[in-house]
Amino acid sequence: MKIVLCYKEFELGEMEQVGKDDNVEYVFTPINGCELAKQKYAIPRASQLLSGGVKRSSKIFGEYAYILKLFMQNSYIKSEANIIDGETDFEKLVKISRLALDRGSFYLKSRR
């Protein structure tokens, strides 16, 4: 499962989780459309993530963590996404990415 980071009408890149248990890594791959988005909009929040190419991290990337934190503060979204205690951050992000939320700024969608 990949979680696509989007801004307005553009897909910026996709993150996937590789590995298992204690050996988990997150891989972010920019999508070609991110260059158009950077030309059309100033996207300071994601500028570091979008620069360079494929990124790897042992933690969820900051842009995804920010979205997760924001949505976890909203009990309605937690309920709609059917998020339960004990799920990993990645599992929560997958559930959030399946919701039809406002697409006026940053949002997530999922892809297999």
Description:
It is built from five helices and five strands; from the N terminus they run βββααβαααβ. Strand 2 and strand 3 form a beta hairpin. The mean pLDDT is 89. The N and C termini lie close together (5 Å). It is globular, with a radius of gyration of 14 Å. Strands 4-3-2-1-5 form a five-stranded antiparallel β-sheet. Helix content is 35%, strand content 27%. The protein has 112 residues and is of the alpha+beta class.
Name the beta content range: 25-35%
Given the structure, what is the number of helices?
5
Which spans have pLDDT < 50 for at least 5 consecutive residues?
none
Helix content: 25-40%
CA radius of gyration is: 14 Å
- Main-sheet strand order equals 4-3-2-1-5
What are the secondary-structure elements, in order, as H or E? EEEHHEHHHE
Give the termini distance in whole angstroms: 5 Å
How many strands, what sense, and barrel or not for the largest sheet?
Answer: 5 strands, antiparallel
Average of the residue pLDDT scores? 89
Structural class: alpha+beta
Can you tell me the overall shape? globular
SS elements, strand count = 5
Features:
alpha+beta, 27% strand
What's the topology here?
Blueprint: E1 2-7, E2 10-18, E3 25-30, H1 33-40, H2 47-50, E4 55-57, H3 62-72, H4 75-81, H5 89-97, E5 106-111
Antiparallel strand pairs: 1-2, 1-5, 2-3, 3-4
Helix pairs in contact: 3-5
